Amino acid sequence: MRYISTRGQAPALNFEDVLLAGLASDGGLYVPENLPRFTQEEIASWAGLPYHELAFRVMRPFVAGSIPDADFKKILEATYGAFSHSAVAPLRQLNGNEWVLELFHGPTLAFKDFALQLLGRLLDYVLEKRGERVVIVGATSGDTGSAAIEGCKHCENVDIFILHPHNRVSEVQRRQMTTLFGDNIHNIAIEGNFDDCQEMVKASFADQSFLKGTRLVAVNSINWARIMAQIVYYFHAALQLGGPARSVSFSVPTGNFGDIFAGYLARNMGLPINQLIVATNRNDILHRFMSGNQYVKETLHATLSPSMDIMVSSNFERLLFDLHGRNGAAIAGLMDNFKQGGGFSVEQERWTEARKLFDSLAVDDAQTCETIAEVFAQTGELLDPHTAIGVKAARECRRSLDIPMVILGTAHPVKFPEAVEKAGVGKALELPAHLSDLFERDERCTVLPNDLKAVQAFVSQHGNRGKPL
Ligand SMILES: *Cc1c(COP(=O)(O)O)cnc(C)c1O
Q1: Which of 20, 199, 226, 451 has the largest count of CB atoms under 10 Å?
Q2: How many Å lie between the centroid of ligand 1 and the Cα of residue 65?
Q3: Ligand 1 nearest-atom number relative to CA 386
Q4: Could you identify the atom of ligand 1 that is nearest to the CA of residue 260?
Q5: Measured distance CA(276)–CA(284) in Å, rounded
Q6: Proportion of the chain above pLDDT 70, given as a percent
Q7: What confidence score (pLDDT) does residue 143 get?
């Protein structure tokens, strides 16, 4: 499989190189040159397969030529063996034809484990083969950091540095990162906000001289391998609800458009999906595009669903590329314009095309809490605030009651106690067994000033299993 950039100028890469790349050299994002397409018979024959075997069938075409089947199978078995629920991604019924796909049974209790548990193992495999080492520098406002550290902690050839804004992540989220020890794990609390952290990561990709020749790898969802891993659970859910003979709809709590883009790809690979709902919080750039064809940056608001607090949605470029007939020059033009501070609209027929599949809703904090309370009263299920936004959007935007509606349950409620308290359901939150002593564990973290040079000096001092690069 070959991968091409959404801006049309960077060289095509194979899977291995895409895994190790950040942005493409032309500033674009990598996408498969040709998407595999499965027949209905093929998809139907996968019903009842264990999760890792389904994962093998769905993802095999994407790694073809880079990872032999037998090795890929082993990697997938280990990856999804790390989940605490035997079904890996169980479906739970809320109402008649309404389901939550629980994606929070991985080590860090959010759906990001599906991709990052795999990413760590893929990196280790590929780097071992090549005899190389890499450094990861990632920024997190919460869930990505712990999932990335959990995914990479056993990697022989990876040193991981995660930047989080000092005193601005929840205690559960901080402890999920800082209580993991290893000479290749480095937590850095930056005296600044999340944007400061993200800017430092971007600047480090742009000028990597401080790494003395060691390669920098991306762990955010610009990394293709993350999107790829998320395609699988759309097939997994649909197969349990009568797919592919029957079509299914999904409502997806969205920030960077990564998770929902995976659903769009599943549909293009042959899975009958009737409707994809973009569910955002008050940071609603995607909703403004879907409802009014305006893609314009606005100020950032802190919400009760912090993992979706974004101003710009990086993976949206991947959808735009398809909407523009895969014309890289057109995307480069739109993005340049956007960068200059302008927003954009797309031509009417392109927007209409998108709206055939996508609907959207923006849900504020008050509605989020109301939904948590409502669902708890109706079903006894306690939702996390992100999932609650998905439920609200599903109920508002649903096109057909006859088609099963699956809401992606992106996190365990215990990660977001503030929202659950505000919802007033009065149920005590309990950490799952493997994290029950989280609040007693020792922490390890370095506080650094909001200064790029200080951070880069720290990385080059510790980037080789705690020793200088
Ligand atoms: C990251 C995250 C999201 C948003 O996912 P995107 O792929 O950025 O759209 C939603 N919910 C939770 C709990 C998350 O951690």
Answers
A1: 226
A2: 31
A3: 11
A4: 9
A5: 16
A6: 100
A7: 87
> Ligand 1 centroid vs 410 CA: distance in angstroms?
7
Segment 210-268, tens digit of pLDDT:
999 999 998 988 999 999 999 999 999 999 999 999 999 999 999 999 999 999 999 99
Closest residue (by CA) to atom 1 of ligand 1? 307
DSSP string, 43-110: HHTTTT--HHHHHHHHHHHHHTTTS-HHHHHHHHHHHHHTSSSTTSS-EEEEETTEEEEE---STTSB
**pLDDT computed for residue 339 by the predictor:** 86
Alpha-carbon span 286 to 258, nearest angstrom:
12
Q: What residues are in contact with ligand 1 under a 6 Å CB criterion?
A: 110, 112, 143, 221, 253-259, 307-308, 386, 410-411
Distance 139 CA to ligand 1 centre (A): 14
How far is Cα of residue 91 from the mean position of the Cα atoms in its chain? 19
Reported as a single tens digit per residue, the pLDDT across 279-309 is 999 999 999 999 999 999 999 899 999 999 9
Tally Cβ neighbours within 10 Å of residue 73: 16
What local confidence, expressed as pLDDT, does residue 198 receive?
87
Cβ pair 189, 165 in contact under 8 A: yes
Mean pLDDT for the stretch of residues 111-139: 96
CA atoms in the 13 A half-sphere facing the CB of 352: 3
Q: Calculate how far, in angstroms, residue 408's C-alpha sits from the geometric centre of ligand 1.
A: 10
Is 339 marked active-site? no
* Interval 148-171: pLDDT, tens: 999 999 999 999 999 999 998 888
Domains, the chain, with CATH or none: 86-109+223-422 (3.40.50.1100), 134-213+439-466 (3.40.50.1100)
Q: Which atom of ligand 1 is nearest to the CA of 258?
A: 7
